[in-house]
Design goal:
The chain is an alpha+beta fold and 146 residues long. It folds into two domains: 55 residues; 62 residues, Beta Barrel (OB fold (Dihydrolipoamide Acetyltransferase, E2P)), CATH 2.40.50. Helices cover 21% and strands 29% of the residues. A hairpin with a 5-residue loop joins strand 4 and strand 5. The protein starts with a helix and ends with a strand.
Length: 146
């Protein structure tokens, strides 16, 4: 039984692909023998930018382990002030009982709990509050409309 034209065409394509693959393999082998393997090498310069040139060993700088910070250091908050502050109630969820006030002076977002609210507040309204500290950061105390 004779092969159909379609089968011959597929076989021809398969042989061509095999031949091209073998040529690419030879090319890669030749490049690695010639030292062309560094064509894809990238380096970092002193500013952290990628370059194709290796760094100058004379500009090498030793770094002590104490200088390396793996995580973000804890944010320090200013201590509570005795006076009242002004802010805008940016978010408040009545069903969950908490919200956030944006301090007008420092632009800091301050947590407020429903138990620290003295009167009903409206979202995006101006409020007066005293600043307090908690283990998680600053909190608004004695919050009322301005």
């Amino acid at each position: 039984m004779a092969d159909s034209w379609n089968k011959k065409e597929r076989e021809k394509k398969k042989q061509q692909a095999k031949k091209e693959k073998e040529e690419r393999k030879k090319e890669r082998r030749q490049q690695s023998e010639d030292g062309g393997g560094n064509a894809m090498m990238a380096y970092l310069d002193a500013d952290g930018n990628l370059t194709s040139t290796p760094p100058d060993p004379n500009q090498r700088r030793e770094v002590s382990l104490e200088e390396i910070e793996i995580s973000v250091p804890r944010q320090t908050h200013e201590p509570a002030e005795p006076g009242t502050r002004e802010g805008i109630l940016t978010f408040f969820n009545e069903s969950r009982g908490f919200g956030f006030i944006r301090d007008i002076k420092t632009r800091e977002s301050i947590f407020v709990h429903v138990n620290d609210i003295l009167e009903p507040l409206t979202e995006n309204g101006k409020v007066n509050f005293k600043l307090g500290d908690s283990p998680k950061g600053p909190v608004a105390l004695q919050v009322k409309n301005a």
